[in-house]
Amino acid sequence: MKYFKYFISSITLVLAVYTCTMGAFYPTCFFIGFSLFIILGDKILSPDKSKEKYTSNFLLNLPMYINLPLLLILLFITVYLIGDKQSSFFNDLVINYLQIDLVRSKQMINPLDSFFLVALTGLFIGIMGTVPGHELVHRKKNKFDMFVGNWLLAISWDCAFAIEHVHGHHKNVGLPIDPATAKRGENIYGFIFRAIVNEQKDAWKIELKRLRKKHQNLIGFKNKMIIGYLRSIVLSIFSFTIGGYQGLIIYLICAFIAKSLLEVINFSEHYGLIRVPGESVSPRHSWNSNSPLSSIYLYNVTRHSSHHEKANLKYWELDVYENAPIMPHGYLTMLYLALFMPPVFHKMMARKLIDWDNRFATEKERLISVEHNKDSGIDILIAQT
Fold first, then answer.
1. Would residue 111 count as lying in a domain?
2. Residue 369 belongs to a domain
3. Does residue 242 contact residue 76 with C-beta atoms inside 8 Å?
4. Among 26, 25, 5, which residue's Cα sits nearest to residue 15?
5. Model pTM score
6. Per-residue pLDDT tens digits for 77-109
7. Is 98 exposed, middle or buried (0-12, 13-18, 19+ CB in 10 A)?
C-alpha cells in the first residue's frame, strides 16, 4: 500500500482517458467529481505526517515516468475531440490500442463537456505533469530523470522552470526579486502574469551566464531554453496534425492553464512570507500542508519547507516539520480559493500571516512585515501596523 498510493495519479489519468470518452456529460462529471474527491478527502481524512521506509526507488519513480505517456494520450485525445480536424491515423491508433472510438466520442461531446475537458486536461498537466517534472529536474546528475522531467515540463511550455526554479527560486525565495514569492495582498492574476514573465527573463539570464562561463555558443543546441522550446514545438506540431488549427489552440490553452496553476501553487506556498536579504532560507519561509490526498497527488511537495531546506532530497525522503507554517486547507482548496474567491483567500491568509509575524518571524522580518502590511490593502493587516 505504501508504494501503491503514489500510483493513484497514474490510475486517475487512465480513468480520465476512458471516462471522458464515454459520452455526453462524462467529462463534466469527472472534473467535478475529481475536485470534490480531493477537497473533501483532504478535509475528512487524517493528516499525513508519516515518513515511510522504502527499499525500491524504482517503484517510487515509476508512476512519474508513466505519467508522461498517459498525459500525452489524454492531451491528444482532448485535441482530437475538440479540434476541427479528424486524424484517421490517430483514431485508428486509439481504437487498436485503447479500444476507444474517438469518432463516436466526438459526436457526443457538447460545449459544456468541451469546457470541462480542457479544464481537466490543463489541471492534470499541472498536477500530474509539472509537479513530477519539478521533482525530476532537481536530479541534475541523473540523465534519464532529467529527460523525463524536461518533457513533462515541455507539455506546459515551461522549460524556464527547470532552470529558474532550481537555480533562482531556491536561492531567492522570500525576497522581492523572487518571481515565485507573492506579496501580501497581491492580485492573483497580476501575480500569474508577473511570475511567468520574470521567470522567463531570469531563466534566460541564468542560462546565458552558464553558456558564457563555458565559452559555448549562446544561440544553439547547447542552450537549454532553446531545446526546451523545441520540445514544446514538437508537441504543438503533433496537436496540429491531430486536431488542426483549433486543436493547436486547444493544446496551447491547456498548456496555459497548467502553467497558470503552477503559479497559483507558488502563490500559495510562499504567500506573504518574508526573508531578510543575505540570511539563509529556513522552514519558516514556506507554507506546508499535511493534507493526505494533496500529498499523494503532488508527490509530497506539500512538505515544502523540507524541500527548500534540502532540495536534493527525493519526494519520499522529505520530512514533516511540526513547527513550520501550515496552510489552512489542502492544495486544491487553496488553489480554487485563490483563483475564484480572492477576497476570501486574502482574508483567511491574513490571519495566518499575523500568526507568522508573531510566532515565526525574526525581529528584522517583523520590521519588514510592517511595511508589507501597510501596502497589502488588507484591513486586518493594516490594523497591525
1. yes
2. no
3. yes
4. 26
5. 0.95
6. 999 999 998 899 999 999 999 999 999 999 999
7. middle
